[in-house]
Amino acid sequence: IGSGGTTSTFQQNEQALSMQVCALKDGDARAIFKTLNIDLRKYGRLIMNVHGEPLPGAPPANTNIQDGDLRIFLRLGSDFTNNYYQYEVSLNISELPLPAGSIDDQLVQEAIWATLIDFPLDSLVQIKTTRNESGASPLTLYTVGTTSDNGATYSIIGNPDLGFVEEVMIGISNPKDITGGGEEYCAEVWVNELRLADIDERGGWAALARIDAKLADLGSVTLSGNMHTIGFGTLEQQIDERYKDNFYQYAASLTMELGKFFPDKLGIRLPLYASISQSFSNPEFDPYEFDVDLQEKINSITETHGVDSAAQYKRAVIDFTSIKSINFTNIRIERDRAGATPRPWNIENFDLTVAYSDEYNSNPTLEYDRIQRYKGAIGYTFSQKAKYITPFEKIIDKKYKWLQLVRDINFNVLPTSYSFRTELNRQFGETLMRDIYGDGLIDPTFDKYFNWDRFYGIKFEPFKAMKIDFSATNNARIDEPYGKIDTQEEKDTVWTNIKNFGRNINYRHSLSVNYNVPINKIPVLSWVTLKTSYNTTYGWVAGSLGLADTLGHTINNTQAKNVNGELNFRNLYNKSKLLKEYNTNTFKAGKSVDKKIEKGSTEGEEEDPEVESTTKKGSETIGGAGGFFIRLLISLKRITINYSENYGTTVPGFMPTSEIIGLNTNSLAPGWEFISGIQPDFNWLEDAADSGWISTATAMNGLFLQNYSQNFDVRTNIEPLPDFKIDINLNKTYSNNHSEYFKNTNTLEDPVFEHLNGVDGGSLTMSYSILGTVFDKLNTTDVTQTFRQFEENRAVISARFADVNTVYSDDIFYNPLDSSFLPNYAEGYGPYAQDILIPAFIAAYTGENANNINLNVFETVPKPNYRITYSGLNKIPALKKLFSQFTITSAYTSTLSVNSFATDLNFDGNYFAYGHVIDTLSGNFVSLYEIPNIIINESLSPLLGIDATWTNSLTTKFDFKKSRT
To answer: Which strand (E) or helix (H) includes residue 878?
Structure first.
């Protein structure tokens, strides 16, 4: 490391460093530094060897250096200007030439390393203590000399800490000559082996214990404790990673069933849980001065301020934590009412919970941090079996299958379950930071809430096939004055809010209706299953307390409709005795009807005994081609259809409050339809604004949101032959999310509401098929024929759009980019228009005619994918000896995806893709949606797959796959 010249390359091994200075002025210094993060409190001494000599090649006037003319210093701290320790000694110049001898000889080493830095680290701590006790300012450099021969001095500024040393500096200084005749020096100094010594290897110990005791059938008790002392650590931990505190912790918990103390016939259940836990951490070092031993600090306080001050200080530096809790959860009465009819007024329907916990913590930075939690809850639940009334069950005999639907008519008038629960949850937290500087400017802060939560639920089964489940949650806040509640006026305020049931802050309910349509009660449709469900939620969320009167609240609702249908053709075929024989996974053995008739018509010939037996049993089956044809005829086994729609709406700036089932009792806002999940339209918004339901504040910038998603899935199972299965699936998923600002754009006195910045966005995914071009050959030197077809399709699509867009003026396309005309393309529909590219692309890669492809990608009909599996080859006698299982598979999967689309705000038109505005940059009509890309994925996985298990358990698997995107 040089000064005044070219800096040499840094070496990885920094055991020795060379520092060169030249023309170092009187009173000046130069240094090097290194950033690190180290804890030096467990080390006794710091040592470093130093070699000094005149700088070779320097002017003679600057190289006449004597011992003590220069000094070497070492700084440790978090920075080098305001917080550091410094140790400084005189630099001894090594006499040249060096004495003869080996480099390992002590005399040679002492001659080379003529200066030795070796000092106890606690000396640095002592000067800090001395400075602080003397009242000297920490903002100025405080220096203490020594009586050693090397003229060593200790200095400190600020509040450095040996526990967190972040930087080390080594430097050369030219002491200031107070006479004014100081010289300039050129020197080379080597520093070697900066190291720590006298490691504090005092060990510690640790222990833990636990006792679990069972109190017969009353409950159990658990006692536990653990501790460790200073210096304890694991074998792999370094010295500065070991514990630096004496820690003690104990805990006790009790679980009891106090109901055992009452007669069993009362059925009282009174579960008790209580626990206590406390921990104490006594640090080894002062937490305010991390390199000062705590006991020494306390001794110093005792000498200067007395025993009481020392005891108070000791309590302040201990990290103390205490946790206490007690609760009675689910207090109830359980009686044996075997055979008794449950009644709503039974005491067993009620339960009670009370709980209390207290958490307390104090440490060097916290005077105290205490959190007290209180909970009280009363619950009520009543359940009973539905009692269905069946008015026609005894009138219509069950042998009349066509009247089964009427015979099974039933209804129930009473709920099967209803429940209510009310909970009071109060937390009072108070925190006071420790006043370390004693200026008395710190006030406690509070973390508290008082909530009243109410839960409602009802289950109703009006018919056996219908289940209705309604649940609601109302969260109310009991507002409290700031700080402690320690005056009668404040207590009265709290009680008034309790009597008013608090201030509602959140309400939410959900309704679920599931109905199994009894279509299978009709004999001809007994093989059909149809299930429907309707689910809805409604929520009201209070606005901020100080802004709700102007910006309002937020309401939202959701609606989900699902239809699941299944056509089980197996059950349909089983209605025919003939078809039932073939509606299996195996071939049936038997004689064909044709053969039996042939034998029976031959006179004087002995009758086949098997045929005779079969004839008697009456279980003949059609064999040969006829049986094969029947199996093909009934190969369709099952069709499953799932369809769902999901809606959601969020309305900001809603002014009315929630009172009863989410409605405002004065205006019935937001209306029965909204809380039932019915989705509002723009007319509803405008009517709500006219009714004063929407905030008129111009600062209200919440987004009105509406979400919609649609899912359609069809799965078909075909089995033309035993062990030969074809699975066909078809699906489509579409989502659209609308957002806009609906707000007042005029004055508060004369509000005018407008719909602003309406944007739609979403995605589309469907099963698809491009098998028509799956085997097109790739051409590495030219484009494929499919791509050529794509280019040709564009002109066809352009003409089709021109026919349906009423704004089209029969002009040809003008390209403003190169000022050219393209006669094959219509005005506004150029070769690179989004509206043209999408259908042209789909038509080309599906092999369809561009004149027939749907121009709207969102109206594209999904196409089926398939999976074919045959596992019957191992039943062939020749293969059965070789394979225990042999399966051939072929599967095709393809999807067409629009990962995202969003409204183009420049669009002006009356229908999808039929724009009225031409973009001046591209010459194309602006599309309704911006669609970044259309992706078609195709996978024959596998095109052909074989999975075979040999009779010796060896497995062979082969897959030939093909995919493209």
So the answer is: helix 877-880
